[in-house]
Predict the structure.
Amino acid sequence: MKIHEYQAKELLAAAGAAVPRGIVASSPAEAVAAFDQIGGKPVVLKAQIHAGGRGKGRFILARRASAGDKLSDFGGVKYLTKRDDVAAVAEVMFQYPLVTKQTGAEGQKVSKVLVQEAADIAREIYVGIVLDRAIGLPVLMACAEGGVEIEEVAAKSPEKILKAVIDPDAGLHLYQARRLAFELGFTGDQIAQAEKIVIALASVYLDKDCSLAEINPLVVTPKGEVVVLDAKITFDDNALFRHPDMETQRDEGEENPADLRAAKAGLTYIALNGTIGCLVNGAGLAMSTMDIIKYHGGEPANFLDVGGGVTPEGAIEAFRIILDDPKVKGVLVNIFGGIAKCDLVAEALVKAGREVGFKVPVVVRLEGTNVDKARVILDSARKELPTMQSATDLTDAAKKVVAAAKG
Ligand code: ADP
Ligand code: MG
């Protein structure tokens, strides 16, 4: 789960990092009020979306098929000194989608804007923590050339990236923070300021079970203050249950509606580009179902794992999600009745068919406990659900659904 810049900065500030003064606005009027509250000093308006690259992004003012879209001449991070300009820029930010390298062509709607006191910048630095899966430990990475081109630096001159491996039990040691501060070229009392921020970043990463915690840029002002200008945090979804307070930070406007529905129903769903919807229990079985569909010349439209216990509610929601995708021309149900017995699964499927309506062919392959009882249930529902057919085994099922989707 990702959170917004302003939320990430709140967490970092609470852990002791120096963050410039900022106020979150939900409308242009609130943005102007925030500018006044900051005292009429220069501010930076920052569109809050989860995607990065906001500074270099543009707002789509009008879609034009032939001439190319009409774009704003500023991005999602805009330095402003006048009250009237704050009002005008905020109008645009709240009204039009912001497109960046990371949003996709449609852009992302902005519902919050951070009005932040502008900082004078002498240097921009990158600091971030990610899990290094090869060694199974978090690694702190830093680069003296931070700012908006960090991906390029990492690709072209990887030797410029400094690294420190973090012990998840002890946290980032002070000596590690100090060494990093030296290597980044900090001197005098900036060393202590930088150490404090890096230690705050590591403690947030560990305390909140993050999969990413990043400050880019960390800046040094001409007066020698070290402050966090932009921050990004992603929580590990598998550990979210340990942080119920973080759940309130979720912005559903940033999430794919199908993913959100699936997550709420306890389903694992990933949309793909093909035409055959898959409803399967177990991730391994789902992978091999997708393989066999491809082997027989079809393309899966999704990965959907309903989990071990298949309930009527889960099956109904799963079919709703799959059939909502207009690309789906056929559905393959592949369930192994172990934890969930086949007859109960068959009943759940029939119930889902009645509830949702199978408007495309649905091929069902069940195997496992009480499979004979299940066949009787499916056979007796044949009249009621004419697009549903049973398969004898997985190959038969794949052939049938591929043929159905093509026909
Ligand atoms: P993004 O990474 O999404 O483009 P950033 O918050 O990093 O957004 O902003 C991009 C650039 O804008 C920064 O590298 C910095 O140069 C400038 N910037 C951001 N916030 C401020 C601020 N409060 N004061 C001055 N400049 C800023
Ligand atoms: Mg940034």
Notes: The longest helix spans residues 190-207. Residues 21-117 form a domain with the Dna Ligase; domain 1 fold (CATH 3.30.1490.20). The chain has three domains: 21-117, 123-247, 257-406. Residues 216, 230 surround magnesium ion (ligand 2) (CB under 6 Å).
